[in-house]
Each structure stands twice: as C-alpha cells, then as structure tokens.
Amino acid sequence: MRAVFASKDGFFNRSVASPVIRSNDVKVTVDATSINPHDIKAMTQLSDNNEVVYGYDVVGHISAIGNAVKHFNVGQRVIYSGTDKRQGSFAEEQVVDEKLIAKVDDHFSDIQLAGIPLVGLTAYELLFEQMNFIASKNANTGKKLLVINGAGGVGSILTQLAHWSGLIVFATASPNHFQGLLRNKVDTVVDYHKALRPQLNTFVDGTAILSNLDDYFDAAVQLTLPHGIIGTTVSSKEGIQFSKLFEKSLTLASEMVFTKANTHFRDETQGQILKFLINLMTLGEIKPVISKVISGGITAKNLSHAANILSTSHAAGKIIILNRPCK
Asked: Does pLDDT of 327 surpass 60?
C-alpha cells in the first residue's frame, strides 16, 4: 500500500506492506483524513533519520477484523482519531483498536466526518472531563467560559459544546474570524490583539487555553473566579508560576487526546464520545468547521500543500484530504 511518511525535510510517498492486524484491531481503508497542528509541530522535532506516518482523523471502511473483535464487522463505515504510538492515517490503510472507533451511517459526508475525531475528542475531554462541566444540554446554565483561540479546530467545536451545555461563552480570535465565532454559538467575541479584561468586563468560571499558554496564563488567573478551573491543551515553553494559582484556589487541568489510547486508561470511552458527538451533529447541535478540502488522494504533494496552508495562515477550522471521490 502507499503511505506518506514525514521527515524533518517534509513529506514523501513510499510503498509499504499492509499493516499487521492484532486480535483487537480492525483494519480500515482510509477514505478521508485531516492534517492537524500536532503533525506540523511533531515534524519539526524529528531527528535526521526518523521517518513517521502521521494522521489522526479518519473516516473509512473496515476491510478486516482481528479474531477478538466483538463490536464491528467488515464493510462498516467508522471514524476515529487513534493513537500516536502506531502508524497514522496518512496511508491507504490503517489498523486501530476497536475501542477507539465509532460506527457511522451515510447521513454525513466524508468531509464532515473527517473534521470531527481529534478536535471533537479533545474538546469534549477538556470541557467535560478535565474541567468538570456537565455534559448535558443546558446543564451549566449561568456559568461562564473563556476560550483562548476560539477560531481554531478545537475551539470551533469546544465553543459549540459549551453553548449546548448552557455555558455563556467568551472566545478570542482576530476580528476577521468574529463572524465564524458567532456562527459557532459564541456569546461575546474578544479581540486577542487587545487586553482581555476590559473586553470581558466580568469574571468566568473556567478558562480554556488552546494556544500560547505562557502568553495567557496570567490573564486566565486574573479572569477566572476563585475555585475555578484553567484548562489547557498546550504545554508551557517557558515554565509557568504555579504559585499564582493558590491565592484563588484555582485548578490547572491539562488534556492530551492520545492519553487514553497510549495508557489504555478508559480508552473505550473514546469510541463512546465519538458516538455522542455524531448524535449531536444529527440533532444539529454541533457542526464541523471546514476551511479547505483537498481532493486527489492522500499523497505527499497534497499533504505538503495542506501543511503549507496550516503553517502560513490562521486557518479557521479543519483541512480535509480526500482519498477517493467525496461520499
């Protein structure tokens, strides 16, 4: 099969053997995938001789199953994010543990479904598991949430989930993305070029920092109410002063989407969360935000094009790469 490897010098195509299936795995023919900032960041950290197949958004069809698989059959259409410890989705085929996947019907297109897994899981786990808001419609009514980088892939889903759950949502972006934020159910848009506190004129129960933790940590401490939660999907480069949390008894919570799969801790919940998110899509409560669709297959050329877009622009939403004509 063809796979697209990443090296420190970029993407390149290579013909490799079909991946070996384990007893709890399904093998999936990849119909569409997406590129994420994680892929770009990881490429920059590769050593000279290190070559990796990335890709952590999949919609595809099961072509084979392991002998211990209980819940899936050949031919079924599925979505998943997977794990960064095995070959990713920038390939014609991929194997994945059945706990991490969810069945989908033909109600949604490949484009729509490929825009959900990684950002949807990250948004759900950060908001409802790490930050402890309640994952039920209008269950958090009256509480307030500030989202740093509301226009990105995770932010575009997290703000919709927050609104659905009853939170009053504030979100930062540049002014050219304000209309997109409003379409994603943000109550108050905040220009990240300006000081945040005067624009909010209130305090929030939680702050979700989805980019530049070092730049926004102090503002989050100032704006989050005592005993509130600061959640983040990014690490600190400079080192943050945890002592600043103590005066207000704030909690700092982190989210990394691969933790469950890599540690085998509650990994079955990822398939369950994906089913939950698909149900919300069906009900019209959330929708994927797509910024670009690239057809013509999962190739080094197309992934290089997608990476260039992601690296040189503030893309709002996901970049989808189709491996076959759109369904």
From this structure: no
Helix then strand then coil, % of the chain, to nearest 5: 30, 25, 40
Q: Helical H runs in the chain?
A: 37-44, 110-114, 117-124, 153-164, 178-183, 196-200, 213-223, 243-246, 259-263, 268-282, 300-312
Strand duo 58-65 + 25-35: pairing: antiparallel
Residue identified by tokens 């949430």 is 145
- Whether 2-116+263-322 and 120-254 share one fold: the answer is no
Q: Counting beta carbons within 10 angstroms of the beta carbon of residue 264, is it exposed (0 to 12), middle (13 to 18) or buried (19 or more)?
A: exposed
pTM of full prediction above 0.90: yes
Cα gap 111→109, rounded to integer Å: 5
- Give the whole-angstrom CA distance, residue 112 versus residue 50: 32
Token pair belonging to 106:
């033909």
CATH architecture of 120-254: 3-Layer(aba) Sandwich (3.40)
Contact 44, 50 (CB under 8 A): no
Are the beta carbons of 120 and 127 closer than 8 angstroms? no
Quick: pLDDT tens for 84-97.
999 999 999 999 99
CATH superfamily for 2-116+263-322 is Medium-chain alcohol dehydrogenases, catalytic domain (3.90.180.10)
**How many Å apart are CA 56 and CA 118, to the nearest integer?**
6
